[in-house]
Design brief:
single chain, about 180 residues, mainly alpha, 2 domains, 10 helices
């Protein structure tokens, strides 16, 4: 049952049939939709072999970390390790803009509390991945008139995740006070 190249590894091996097979197929279909027709396991003739070997390529979505995380989880070769349907629906990939901003605000507030503690492990971990998460410095990724606006109120370190979160939180909390061209 199922189309070649879209079946979970346990289906190909005639193993236990569970709801997890549908979630594997969902991972393939989701990738296909996001990329406009590409398949994570390659061309039609190599897909089943790649599925059995767990060899998939998410390069076309690498600039979408939420999509990479969700698709990777859905394509897990171990059916027991795939997320349940409700987990998929609650994944950040499907969050609205409001949910994403609310999450960032809450994280920023948490980081501010941590900042008051000397040698905060959370803050150290957060900043240890800053260059990977930000891709250098974040000032080059923002428009110049926005940067000049944030610089009026405080100095920020453009290589700091904490400071980027602080900017997001502050601008979100004071959105109505921002000039119209920045809103």
């Amino acid at each position: 049952i199922g189309s070649s190249g879209w079946r979970a590894p346990e289906q190909l091996l005639n193993g236990r049939q569970t709801r997890a097979i549908d979630l594997f197929s969902l991972g393939c279909v989701l990738f296909f939709c996001i990329t406009g027709g590409k398949h994570p396991f390659g061309t039609e003739y190599v897909r089943d072999g790649n599925i059995l070997n767990g060899q998939f390529d998410l390069f076309p979505i690498e600039d979408m970390p939420e999509a990479v995380d969700l698709v990777t989880r859905l394509l897990n070769g171990d059916a027991d390790q795939r997320p349940r349907a409700m987990e998929v629906l609650q994944h950040p990939f499907f969050w609205s803009s409001e949910e994403r901003l609310s999450f960032l605000r809450e994280v920023s507030d948490r980081v501010e509390l941590e900042d008051r503690e000397k040698q905060s492990e959370l803050l150290q971990e957060l900043e240890s991945v800053a260059s990977l998460a930000i891709g250098g410095t974040w000032d080059g990724k923002l428009e110049s008139h926005f940067l000049s606006n944030i610089g009026r109120y405080r100095r920020y370190k453009f290589d700091s995740v904490r400071d980027l979160l602080r900017v997001i939180r502050n601008k979100l909390n004071h959105y109505r006070e921002l000039p119209k061209d920045i809103q």
